[in-house]
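Intended use. Records like the one below are meant for learning the mapping from a protein sequence to its folded structure. Do not use them to infer anything beyond what is encoded.
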Amino acid sequence: MIDPLHDSPFLRACRGLPAARTPIWLMRQAGRYMPEYRAIRARHSMLEVIHTPELAAEVTLQPIDRFGFDAAILFSDILIPAEPMGFRVAFRPGPVLDAPVRDAADVERIRTPPPEETVPFVYETIRILSRELAGRVPLIGFGAAP
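Structure written out for the chain above:
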């Protein structure tokens, strides 16, 4: 069986195929411009939202429900993988690592534990979004590297 999203405008464009229209999605798709996002952030810190699958899923879905973008973007931050690697992440207001890597000794201290053990909230957020999106639009994730 072919995935129902196989011919979505976004995935067609990703494959370099013609699409009926130009797909629309935005970096920072969920964010400060949305009153419903601001309401959640008034009650919860950025890390609380990211670490709480129900909240992260809600924030991810807000722009899809309101604007009908062609892809949902997992609400998270590129520094989340740094937490289980041994770094503390804070937002003041942007992301800050407590101890940046500056030399070989810092590199040696970095841990690489299995993500399913250290960021289960990301996996649960994806499960919730898969259920809630129910094939409406693709889900985009992202990552970071040095």
